[in-house]
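Async update (no meeting this week)

Hi team, since we skipped the sync, here's where things stand on the single-chain job. The sequence we agreed to prioritize is pasted below, unchanged from the tracker. I ran it this morning and attached the output directly underneath so nobody has to dig for it. Comments welcome in thread, and please keep replies under the output.
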Amino acid sequence: MLTFITDIQSPGEPDLLRSRRFCPLTVATLEGEILASYPPPRTGWCQAQLDNISEQLTGRLDMGANAYLGGTWIGSTEV
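Output:
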């Protein structure tokens, strides 16, 4: 499963979605091969939408993957 680190759990954690919520989402293998790419929703990404993408990709990420919003790493199967 792809785990996104964009959900703020504690005070002081950075808000990775705020400045990147309108960036495209890219999911790549650990070697960098693009597996999937998604344009941002009209309202921008939120944690629930990212979690939905993770569920959609279940079974396609057995060899590991990383997720990026606009080129910034935001999650992985290795977290």
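Quick observations from my side:
The mean pLDDT is 91.
The helical segments are 47-56.
Reply here if anything looks off.
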